Amino acid sequence: MKILARGEKSLIEELKPKFSDNVNLTVVDELNLTTDELNSFDVIFDLTYQPQPSLVSVYAPLTNKFIFLNSVTTQLAALAAQSTHSIQCTFAGINALPGFMDRKLIEVSIHNDSDKDRLDTLMQNLGLEYRLVNDRVGMVTPRVLFMIINEACYTLQEGTASMKDIDISMKLGTNYPMGPFEWADKIGIKYVYETLNAIYNDTHDERYKICPLLKTYYLKNQTFY
Predict the structure, then answer these.
(1) What tens digit of pLDDT does each residue of 146-199 get?
(2) Is 224 inside any structural domain?
(3) CB 25: neighbour CB atoms within 10 A?
(4) Shared-domain flag, residues 94 and 154
(5) In terms of pTM, does the model score above 0.70?
(6) What CATH number is associated with residue 106?
(7) Do residues 92 and 167 share a domain?
(8) Within this chain, do residues 121 and 166 fall inside the same structural domain, yes or no?
(9) Cβ neighbours of residue 113 under 8 Å, at least 6 residues apart?
């Protein structure tokens, strides 16, 4: 099976070990292939963060091809609605934030429910274990984890506890492998902030309203540790 992958090097490196032996993987930095060249691949994984409608329009004419997009910040339905071409391919979303593909299960969404059986067959052939989630901004794990990180920032901002104490308390109290600030640094504060911002703009739910302290770290391009 011929697979095309595009995205940050670190994300590609997370993806590679998950494929079964029957996969022939090609990695590109820039999407400068023609439609005929793209059609030569069986599946495409475009892990570009915050995909734009123009990107969707490139893939839209690829009849019956599965296209996986890093759709954590944007619904597949919203992207498809803005495409300048009719959708001939099959769009699926994947949680490709840094560190999330290292987990046993990959979070995947689907644009059309009628393609679920085809998706399941494909994932088995690729040797990928996955969990199907709803097509919504933030998917599942980022919504939960980034809300915890945001709440931890409020606690730190209010002076209730130190950064180190919050991390230790979360690890001991919830058996998490990392505390919220350690997790934010590993994922990247840029991704935490921008994903939270996308979730809040989509839902207007106060739980996702970004803490000013987190915003400051993001604007200053700082890490917590």
Answers:
(1) 999 999 999 999 999 999 999 999 999 888 889 999 999 999 999 999 999 999
(2) no
(3) 15
(4) no
(5) yes
(6) 3.40.50.720
(7) no
(8) no
(9) none
